[in-house]
Design goal:
226 residues; alpha+beta; 4-stranded antiparallel beta sheet; 5 helices; 32% helix
């Protein structure tokens, strides 16, 4: 009896769809398309007044994701230690490896940093972080002319805002909103920092904006500056 009931209900349901007015069917399809579009990654830049200044295309975001992968390969240089049960690492002020009982790890890190410096940049590696409100990179530290920062979700990032504050200013010089992010991306910062208020020292803040989730989970990332 139950099987017959569900069969009849299915027939009624699909019949209703067949005779649905065209305008309603089109609206349903349009809404479905919009929902799908919202699930795609987005990156938007806003000026100090909160006005949208740039929306990145899907192709631009793909390129920024490739840049992030290159950054990961460049700085994740520690070789697997198969001969020792444990070893000690020493890090500098940028959280980069400068000494270790594993000499190969130091050599690999220095070779990676040489490539970054050759491109004219310095780099700070921030640790993985979890927050429900906001967090500032390197505990309120200011960086000269920040260029970009990699964001690597530990869980999907649905809505995150990045703000830059120039030293001496209490309001942000601009902000970048990113969302629906499932893979690492290298987020440009120059346009919302020194291009807005000129060369100088800036701090970078992450703000959790996901109303559907209570926390933002990020893996370790890199901040490039001058």
């Amino acid at each position: 009896m139950k099987n017959n009931l569900w069969t009849k209900l299915a027939v009624i349901f699909f019949s209703a769809i067949m005779f649905m007015p065209t305008s309603i069917a089109q609206e349903t399809a349009r809404a479905s398309g919009q929902e799908t579009k919202k699930e795609e990654p987005y990156i938007e830049e806003y000026d100090a007044k909160g006005n949208l200044s740039k929306s990145y295309s899907s192709k631009e975001i793909e390129l920024l994701m490739k840049e992030a992968k290159t950054s990961e390969r460049l700085l994740n240089t520690e070789p697997k230690n198969t001969n020792e049960s444990s070893y000690v690492h020493f890090y500098d002020e940028n959280n980069l490896l400068i000494g270790s009982s594993n000499a190969k790890a130091v050599t690999a890190q220095q070779a990676a940093l040489a490539k970054v410096k050759a491109a004219g940049y310095l780099v700070y590696r921030y640790d993985e972080t979890t927050f429900g409100n906001s967090v500032t990179i390197a505990s309120e530290r200011y960086f000269k002319n920040p260029q970009s920062i990699t964001v690597t979700p530990k869980q999907q990032v649905n809505a995150l805002t990045i703000q830059t504050y120039k030293e001496g200013y209490s309001t942000p010089s601009g902000s970048i909103k990113i969302g629906n992010l499932r893979a690492s991306v290298n987020v440009p910062l120059a346009d919302i920092a020194q291009h807005a208020l000129g060369s100088g020292n800036y701090k970078i803040q992450f703000i959790h904006n996901d109303t559907a989730g209570s926390m933002t989970y990020l893996n370790s990332g890199t901040l490039y500056y001058q």
